Structure formats: C-alpha cells, structure tokens
Amino acid sequence: MYNELYVVWRREIEDASLGSLQPDFYVRIADYLKRINEESRMLDKKSVKLNLLNREAQNVKRMLEELLWARYRKLVKTITQNQTLPSELLTVEEARMCESFVTFSGAYRRFAEGLMQGQTAKVEAEVSHKRMTLRFAKSTPTIIGLDMKTYGPFMVEDVASLPVENAKILIKQGLAVLVEVS
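The structure corresponding to this sequence follows.
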C-alpha cells in the first residue's frame, strides 16, 4: 500500500491534471494506517521495528495530506471553471462530496448571470426526486445521497434505489449495475 500511495502522491504533486484513484483507495489507506497503529501498540517501546513503523506512519500521513489537498484544489478548479466532473477519476467519497458542490456551483453561476442581466434573483434549491435501481457488484461503504439521506453500506448483490446522480457515479466506478425495472 505504501508504494501505491507513493506513486499516486507523486503523480498528483507533479501533474497539473487530476489523476485516477481506485474507488476504494481511501478505504484501503485508512485500513493500512489502522494496521500500522495496531501493530505499533504491540511492540516494545524501544524496538527498532516500532521506530520504523512510526516513521512509516509519519510518511504515509504526510503524503496523504499533500495528496488530499492537491486533489481538493484540482477538483475545486475543475468545478468552478464549469468543466464536467471526471467521476471516473474519483473515489466513492470524492464523488459524493463533489455532487453537492457541483450543484451549488451551477446554481450560483446561474444566479450571478441572471443578476448581471438585471433579472430578479430567484434562488431555489435544486432537488431531484428521480431514482435508479442498482445491483451492487462490489461492497460499497455507506454514502450520503444527493437528497442528504444515508444509503448503505452495500454488500455484493444488494439491490437498492438511489438518487439518479449518485447511481450514475456508482455505475461509472464499476461498483454497481443498473437494474431494469418493468
């Protein structure tokens, strides 16, 4: 996991464009850090292995923090420049967080354009009630839907109805497939 993090971190730091992450990347990193911490607690305080594990944890946290901020800046830039969000490059968590920001960004842009044309500023929440039924192909953690409701966690072969925007992201990331309902 350390090598994978290093490769991803280096790409995000050196390349101006947003790189691709596996949908479960953050889940695996969290698990990796948890394992390091658990192993560290079992070791003698003066052991060389404990020293090495502590150094590894520090490096992982530093790279992870830099990776997160680099991706955050790139995502905000992409969204605010009115570009389409590259959902295939995002993790499950990033896709969920970006949905509400994309909605906000678009609504604010329309508000500003209308105001600049002398139109009355009418602000309404954009709510979509359309849903899609999905069958999960991979285990997926709990998500917050665009409707701000909690969905999941989902196991392989679970079937659920989710807001269209969330469903499309899960399908693109290969976590679920559309179920045709007649």
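Residues 9 and 64 are 7 Å apart (CA to CA).
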